[in-house]
Amino acid sequence: MTVDDTTSGADAPDGSGGSRGATGPGAAHPTPHHAVDHTAEPTDDPLAIRLEQLILGADRRYTPFQAARTAGVSMELASRFWRAMGFADIGQAKALTEADVLALRRLAGLVEAGLLSEPMAIQVARSTGQTTARLAEWQIDSFLEGLTEPPEPGMTRTEVTYPLVELLLPELEEFLVYVWRRQLAAATGRVVQAADDEEMVDRRLAVGFADLVGFTRLTRRLEEEELGELVEAFETTAADLVAAHGGRLIKTLGDEVLFAADDARTASEIALRLIDAMTQDETMPALRVGIAFGTVTTRMGDVFGTTVNLASRLTSIAPKDAVLVDGAFAEGLIRTGDAPASEAAAAEEAAAAEKDGEMPPSYRFALQPMWQRPVRGLGVVEPWLLTRRR
């Protein structure tokens, strides 16, 4: 719900800090009709307006210029915040509420107090907007759509929507805040345990991709609904397994999921359980997983860097229903005693333990070195095949 850049205070001909398109006090000249994108203006549909008022808890009162001025924020900064949050340009329509003013005031206040830099405040707005936009779309497309089937003949879906939203809104709001606080607590705990200040930003993680094999061929064979169900089942299974075993689902890409874990043991357990789950489901295609361990840069919940690229390349060359890992990942498993350096070394250890009347070492995983090969953009790598030790 932002305005175009012609409404910034720097462009106001009278130096009022206002917009040429403002209709409230302090407006200089009306915006020419052709300068406003009317297609982006809020709807005038009566039910849509009633639902908007119910969800936002307030009536439309302000144009963008009026909201920015009331919040004590420049029009330019307000536009940057709104665009970062993913709101459409609305020209100078009167469509904003007290909540919009308060949000502007809070973000600007964090900058003024020195708690956030302006670029960081923009990033907070963007990350929050992108995450909640996806959540809202899913809730409307899947959740509400399934619940608004008319309970009685003659009723329309529209007639059911308002009372349903009225009942669900407070419960969903409290649940959203609860989950966010839980996730924030977990993320904060992980970061403060970093070895040093530098690692709090550029962290060492195990990063893995799990990719459905032959997905492109499936898209030609399956109906859209069947394909959607398959992708949803895959994403649900992956998300549940990653979370249950202490990893973090970074993102889903339809036929591929990206996950991360703090250590090689956790990532190994996730990868092998994903393979097991997919092979046990006859409706699912084969799965391949690639994992690398190293420094990653985290931004807005995503991960970047050479480690991520290497994990992606390992996935592309992994056999069906198998897990390939890089050398740093294999070293991590060997160092923690989760895998032997080699089967020959494990046999020697077992023989020595038997001779001394002791229990031989117990390993969770096995590692088999594969042929070295050049990987585009990353040089020559030596993948290791990861399996569960029998």
Itemize the secondary structure elements and their pairings.
Elements: H1 46-56, H2 64-71, H3 75-84, H4 98-112, H5 118-147, H6 157-192, H7 197-201, E1 202-212, H8 215-221, H9 224-244, E2 248-252, E3 256-261, H10 264-280, E4 287-299, E5 302-304, H11 306-317, E6 322-325, H12 327-335, H13 343-355, E7 365-369, E8 373-375, E9 379-381, E10 384-388
Describe it for me?
With about 400 residues, the chain is of the alpha+beta class. It is about 50% helix and about 15% strand. It has helices at about 45-55, 65-70, 75-85, 100-110, 120-145, 155-190, 195-200, 215-220, 225-245, 265-280, 305-315, 325-335, 345-355; strands at about 200-210, 250, 255-260, 285-300, 300-305, 320-325, 365-370, 375, 380, 385-390. The strands form two sheets. Strands 1, 2, 3, 4, 5, 6, 7 and 10 form an eight-stranded mixed sheet that branches. A hairpin with a 3-residue loop joins strand 2 and strand 3. The longest helix is centred in the middle third of the chain and has 36 residues, at about 155-190. Mean pLDDT is about 80; it is low at about 1-40.
